[in-house]
Amino acid sequence: MRKKIVAGNWKMNKVDEEVNSFLSDLLQLSYPSNVELVVIPPSIFIKEATNAFTNTSVKTGAQNCSEHTEGAYTGELAANMIKSVGAEYVVVGHSERRAYFGEKNEVLSLKVNQVLANKLTPIYCCGEKLEEREAENYFNVVENQIKQGMFHLSEDEILACVIAYEPVWAIGTGVTATSEQAQEMHAFIRGLLAEKYNQQVANKITILYGGSCKPDNAKELFANPDIDGGLIGGASLKVEDFIAIANS
Description:
Layout: E1 4-9, H1 16-26, E2 35-40, H2 46-52, E3 59-62, H3 79-84, E4 89-92, H4 95-101, H5 105-117, E5 121-126, H6 130-134, H7 138-150, H8 155-158, E6 162-165, H9 179-196, H10 199-204, E7 207-209, H11 215-222, E8 229-232, H12 239-246
Parallel strand pairs: 1-2, 1-8, 2-3, 3-4, 4-5, 5-6, 6-7
Helix pairs in contact: 5-7, 7-9, 11-12
């Protein structure tokens, strides 16, 4: 049975008083016990969120980490720092990191290594741009992202990872991949894992959908056999929407 995960990526949003209000409200609401809820705030709020979730099942994560262990890298955040404040997940290779900060698959593979070395769970993101979708090159794009970023890992290491498929053309645009499009890519990714490792490994890895997932479309998306939850962006900023997605 694969782990069902709904992870909320706040991106660069919320100030301290808003964080306190969100965390307090979240703890008053219920969601299915078989769903792992993950809150991924800006890094300065990770410890605050982790402390708020003490003695609960809610987890926290970071939006990014450095490929370096430590040193003179001003502004960077090492995986062991993330670990030290109680987070359990790290997003690696989000499309915004790829687009705005030029992160390449080779660098992302090093970030995955850092996350795993610190006993954290990477949420490795992959997905195609609009022009790649229109050129019908989307399978090749995602295949290269996964192979170059993850396929250096051993079987045990890949089993410690989560993958998130995020069609770039559906992030923050209000456009969502159809249920059929999302399932098609999730099945393709699981097929890549089966080819590299084996079907048993592929069947154990959680693959999330990330791309304008909202309360009104989450149930349809999550009903697909290879979609195990969501990496939620804008809808994770409103506690009621976030919980509604988890309840889907």
